[in-house]
């Protein structure tokens, strides 16, 4: 009997919880009072129909005080002005991150949907109906509403579509049509909509156009959005384009093969090619580009090499973050702002190390003694590196500089007194990597913020460089050596001997000889690294023990 009563009560509770609640609000701002008068608990409402007059305070009441509200119909309601909120507008943040909301019928009289009105409403499902009265859709209005499905239909009344308004709406599919009335589309409005295959613009639109399902401004000087669901093999950007907008190719995983950027492009926007996993081969930036924004090629992990022309004046942070196959970044010799040294990117005077390519195969790297700063993310995800030597000239290390260097076994630091670093300078490596410091400096590093996070801190007397490998067929002998050491095997252009702190000790300039002898009798006993550049441009690091 008790069991049956329990089942009955449970069933009744379920019916009550899912029952449809209809409320007519005569005076805007009176929804809370109407709910209370009807003896309804806002906390239990799941299916709600509201008619009459409401304002922003009523909408925020539904958002904040109805935690399990799932289905909402305000189609027949009139939105009145309230405080700074205008009439006939879904206010900013109307149902911001209200994940429980699964269905919404918007007022058929509204003219505007505010910024982030339904941002993060990941529970919304089915088709989205935007009333024919709407003229403006705010930025991030439906951002990450990724369970909305079917075709995205934007009424012909709409004039303005804000930035990222439908970004990451991965359930919308098929073609999207932009009517003749639209005069403003914000950056990334349709970015990462992974099932939209084409964006087509009415030919009578005075501000925008399309070609092969890709969105441009009217004269096609700006490429605004390539749909993320479009499948393209080796895309050639039209020669009319001067700017590639932020998020233009965001998550275009169907973009495969090589990318041809014409010599007309001047700027590449933020996240322009983020997660274009299918792009492969060499990325050749044309000699017209002056700026590459932050995260422009984030996670384009099929690109193997990058060529930077002399025209580039600015690089945003993390421009090639996550591009784990890039083996070299090569800069035109005439570039006045940047330079590469053996495929590593620096500012022009090599005082700032900007990016070490994550796909570079050399396992030991000696930072040049000209460097004073290591940029944010400079060595991130460089899984091939096992040892890095930081010279005494370096006085700053950026955030996440060595993040993801999972095989890094040793950092050799030359400063006797530790300089200030950020909390994240050595994130992700302090338990697996040994910090080697000058003799007598261990205590100072063990007491310095963030340096002390290294589990093992030792001094130069215990340094082990047995893992340094030849990257060419060069041979160095005898090794150990006392007075003279020989290198042979390939034609050579230059050889430099470094101590373990990256400080150059001796320079040699062979003229293409395949065998050279180096006089090392003035070197102090200890371990050294010999950097040899061969005639084919490759650099090899060889270990040397001077006795």
Descriptive notes:
This protein is elongated. The protein has a seven-stranded mixed beta sheet, with no helix packed on it. Strands 1, 2, 3, 4 and 6 form a five-stranded parallel beta sheet that branches. The chain is mostly beta strands and 547 residues long. The longest helix has 17 residues, at 2-18. Among the domains are: 1-87, Leucine-rich repeat, LRR (right-handed beta-alpha superhelix), CATH 3.80.10.10; 389-462, Leucine-rich repeat, LRR (right-handed beta-alpha superhelix); 475-546, Immunoglobulin-like, CATH 2.60.40.1930. The chain is built from four helices and 41 strands.
Give me a quick take on this structure.
This protein has 547 residues and is mainly beta. It is built from four helices and 41 strands. The strands form ten sheets. It has a seven-stranded mixed β-sheet with strand order 13-14-15-17-19-21-23, with no helix packed on it.
Give me the side-by-side strand order of the main sheet. Answer: 13-14-15-17-19-21-23
Give a quick account of the main beta sheet: strands, pairing sense, barrel closure: 7 strands, mixed
**Might you state the CATH topology name of the domain at 1-87?**
Leucine-rich repeat, LRR (right-handed beta-alpha superhelix)
Structural class: mainly beta
CATH architecture of the domain at 1-87: Alpha-Beta Horseshoe
How many β-strand runs?
Answer: 41
Helix content: under 10%
Distance between the termini: 94 Å
Note the total helix count. 4
- Tell me the name of the CATH class of the domain at 1-87: Alpha Beta
Strand residue percentage: 25-35%
Q: What is the global morphology?
A: elongated
Residue runs with pLDDT of under 50 for 5 or more positions: 1-17, 462-467
Mean pLDDT score: 91
């Amino acid at each position: 009997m008790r069991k049956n009563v329990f089942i009955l009560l449970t069933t009744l509770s379920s019916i009550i919880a899912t029952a449809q609640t209809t409320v007519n609000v005569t005076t805007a701002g009176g929804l809370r009072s109407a709910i209370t008068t009807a003896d309804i608990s806002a906390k239990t409402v799941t299916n709600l129909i509201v008619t009459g007059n409401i304002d922003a305070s009523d909408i925020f009441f539904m958002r904040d005080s109805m935690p399990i509200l799932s289905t909402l119909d305000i189609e027949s309601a009139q939105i009145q002005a309230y405080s700074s909120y205008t009439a006939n507008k879904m206010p900013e943040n109307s149902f911001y991150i209200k994940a429980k909301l699964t269905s919404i019928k918007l007022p058929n009289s509204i003219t505007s949907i505010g910024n982030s009105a339904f941002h993060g409403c990941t529970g919304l499902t089915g088709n989205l109906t935007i009333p024919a009265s709407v003229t403006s859709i705010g930025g991030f209005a439906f951002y990450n509403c990724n369970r909305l499905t079917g075709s995205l239909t934007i009424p012909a009344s709409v004039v303005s579509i804000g930035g990222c308004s439908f970004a990451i709406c991965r359930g919308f599919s098929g073609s999207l049509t932009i009517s003749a009335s639209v005069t403003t589309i914000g950056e990334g409005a349709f970015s990462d909509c992974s099932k939209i295959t084409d964006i087509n613009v009415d030919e009578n639109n005075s501000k925008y156009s399309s070609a092969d399902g890709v969105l441009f401004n009217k004269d096609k000087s700006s490429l605004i959005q390539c749909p993320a669901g479009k499948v393209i093999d080796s895309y050639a950007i039209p020669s009319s384009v001067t700017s590639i907008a932020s998020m233009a190719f965001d998550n275009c995983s169907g973009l495969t093969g090589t990318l041809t950027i014409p010599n007309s492009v001047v700027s590449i926007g933020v996240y322009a090619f983020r997660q274009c996993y299918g792009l492969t081969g060499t990325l050749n930036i044309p000699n017209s580009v002056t700026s590459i924004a932050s995260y422009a090629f984030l996670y384009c992990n099929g690109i193997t090499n990058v060529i930077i022309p002399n025209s580039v004046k600015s690089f945003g942070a993390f421009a090639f973050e996550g591009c784990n196959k890039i083996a070299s970044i090569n800069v035109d010799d005439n570039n006045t702002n940047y330079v590469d040294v053996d495929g590593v990117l620096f500012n022009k005077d090599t005082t700032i190390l900007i990016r070490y390519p994550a796909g570079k195969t050399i396992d030991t790297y000696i930072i040049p003694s000209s460097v004073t700063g290591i940029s944010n993310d400079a060595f991130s995800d460089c899984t091939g590196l096992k040892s890095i030597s930081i010279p005494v000239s370096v006085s700053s290390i950026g955030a996440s500089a060595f993040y993801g260097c999972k095989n890094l076994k040793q950092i050799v630091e030359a400063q006797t007194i530790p300089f200030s670093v950020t909390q994240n300078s050595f994130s992700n490596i302090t338990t697996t990597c040994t910090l080697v410091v000058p003799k007598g400096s261990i205590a100072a590093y063990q007491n310095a913020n963030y340096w002390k996070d290294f589990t093992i801190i030792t001094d130069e007397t215990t340094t082990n460089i047995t893992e340094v490998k030849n990257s060419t067929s060069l041979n160095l002998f005898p090794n150990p050596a006392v007075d003279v050491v020989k290198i042979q095997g390939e034609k050579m252009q230059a050889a430099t001997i470094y101590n373990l702190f990256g400080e150059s000790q001796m320079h040699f300039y062979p003229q293409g000889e395949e065998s050279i002898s180096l006089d090392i009798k003035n070197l102090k006993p200890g371990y050294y690294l010999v950097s040899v550049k061969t005639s084919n441009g490759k650099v090899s690091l060889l270990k040397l023990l001077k006795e």
